[in-house]
Amino acid sequence: MENKWDHFYKKSYEQRLSLIAEAANLSKAQLDLLGRSLNPRSGELIENNLTDYPLPEGIAVGLVVNGHEHLVPMVTEEPSVIAAASNGAKLLSAGAGIHCSVPDNLVSGQVIVKDADPHQVTKFVHDYQQQLIQIADQSHPSVLKYGGGAKGLDVRILSKQFLSVDLLVDTGEAMGANIINTMLEAVSNWLSEQLTVETTMAILTNFADKAIVEVSGKVAMAKLGTKSLSGPQVAQKIADASQIAQLDIRRATTHNKGIMNGVDAAVMAFGNDWRAVESAAHAFAARSGSYQGLSTWEIDEDQLVGRMSLPVPIGFVGGASKVLPLAGINKQIAQIDNSREEMQVVAALGLAQNLAALKALVTDGIQKGHMNLQLRSLALSNGTTMQELPVVVQKLQGMDHPSSQTVKEILKILRR
Ligand code: MEV
């Protein structure tokens, strides 16, 4: 029997919308909102598209990377993240700024071979290396135009049954998922023909250990002092926090989540695949066999020094960035011209975000900043104007359980 959702993808946009409206009992106003939010080009990216889902975008200021100051567009729904990023950026940029380098920018992938003789496959891959590289390149020849292409293959024995033939590719300015997957399928077909072996799959790996950004930054300890703690005391507490993230998976996960608050927000603003960056980062954090903090902070004379190695597998061209016009504008705002700069800005922002989070945690605690934003939004959503805002927020800060009613009462007195 025909189900009304069968061949949903073949229906027109209007037909899909009316089916959903009926099933979910959507009002006219709700339908209008879905329609207003729709970017007609989104259908070029995804299937069954209904609308576009907007998230807030803001700008982190003052991030100095390798001597260049960047404004960084960030897409996030979380209060305090952008303020914290700017804060961390300011601290790290006061001295020499943040230093970043990208030793390699390569994508890797694997062809899994089943029930084959490991010595035969290993010998074959080494003996026919050049031919395999050619087969990979010919399956996607446009990579050769910019000097990219397959760079080498290796074999790893995973178990008695499975081998992984690993391919490394320079995909230039693209993130390269399509390029490498095409190449891997060509390599897989050729291997199974030549060796009469079964290949289980051919796919890139998100373990992006050949797309690492090395990032470091210093803050003069004197700049870290608060009302109740001296700069060196705060620096020592941040160094302690970093050590705890090396010791304990529970803290390491949250420590890294703080880094990814910045990383993901920028990766999204630049129109890249943030799940790829997320999975790469967390897998890299567990590369020693235990999951650890991605960054470390240590005291060196009068400075607090942060270091991080972070995989940032993103591209400057291609992918969704073609269809998402804001991604292009955001790259222009950030003043980045190529994928290495893009990777560096993202990683530097992650370190700045981490510093701000740790500083808040070991001094005032995280709730203070959050609370202020919540009070601002409570005040604004109850009719406070921008001029009245500082006074209203100050009054709300002194109260135990501020509510909409409290705001209205404060405004009544203020406007008399
Ligand atoms: C909140 O989104 C992120 C933090 O929890 C990060 C951290 O604890 O380091 C503040």
UniProtKB/TrEMBL annotation:
It is an enzyme of class 1 (oxidoreductase). Belongs to the HMG-CoA reductase family. PANTHER family: 3-HYDROXY-3-METHYLGLUTARYL-COENZYME A REDUCTASE. GO terms for biological process: coenzyme A metabolic process. It comes from Lentilactobacillus buchneri subsp. silagei CD034. Keywords: NAD, Oxidoreductase. Pathway: Metabolic intermediate metabolism; (R)-mevalonate degradation; (S)-3-hydroxy-3-methylglutaryl-CoA from (R)-mevalonate: step 1/1. This is 3-hydroxy-3-methylglutaryl coenzyme A reductase. The keyword Nuclease does not apply.
